């Protein structure tokens, strides 16, 4: 599957790329902020997006909202060090399909990807 990685930290993009490629996926683009992510999503049409929350210019929550408004079927996994329940719920309400807490573990990322594409992504109604 084709993946877009969004994170303002080059190290995290490299780590996520390595994990995804080891799983057999193809990384077709990388973005450093939400603004770039929205633009690249529209041009590249990836099967999956991994999205950080805290980034310059446009944060991940706003980027998820914009991507989901353009494509309600977009599959987005949030990846953030902010794993408090309130932040996770906010990400899901914004349209994220799942949430992986940093530091990212390959096994947890793989589980999130497999669950999402087995049709079992997190589904929580808007509150």
Structure description:
The protein is an alpha/beta fold. It has helices spanning 10-22, 34-44, 60-70, 85-94, 106-117, and strands spanning 2-6, 26-31, 48-51, 76-80, 98-101. 45% of the residues lie in helices and 19% in strands. The model is unreliable at 123-127 (pLDDT under 50). It has a 5-stranded parallel beta sheet, with helices on both faces. The chain contains 5 helices and 5 strands, in the order βαβαβαβαβα. The radius of gyration is 13 Å and the shape is globular.
Task: Please supply descriptive tags for the structure shown above.
127 residues, alpha/beta, 5 strands
The helix fraction, in percent, is 40-55%
**Average residue pLDDT:** 91
Task: Let me know the largest β-sheet.
Answer: 5 strands, parallel
Number of helices: 5
Topology:
Blueprint: E1 2-6, H1 10-22, E2 26-31, H2 34-44, E3 48-51, H3 60-70, E4 76-80, H4 85-94, E5 98-101, H5 106-117
Parallel strand pairs: 1-2, 1-3, 3-4, 4-5
């Amino acid at each position: 599957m084709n993946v877009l990685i969004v994170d303002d930290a080059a190290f995290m993009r490299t780590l996520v790329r390595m994990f995804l490629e080891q799983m057999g996926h193809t990384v077709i683009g990388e973005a450093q902020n939400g603004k770039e992510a929205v633009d690249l999503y529209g041009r590249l049409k990836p099967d999956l997006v991994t999205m950080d929350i805290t980034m310059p210019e446009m944060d991940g929550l706003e980027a998820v909202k914009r991507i989901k408004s353009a494509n309600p079927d977009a599959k987005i996994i949030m990846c953030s060090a902010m794993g408090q329940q309130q932040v996770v719920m906010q990400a899901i309400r914004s349209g994220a399909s799942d949430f992986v807490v940093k530091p990212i573990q390959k096994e947890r990322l793989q589980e999130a990807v497999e669950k999402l594409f087995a049709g079992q992504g997190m589904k929580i109604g808007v509150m």
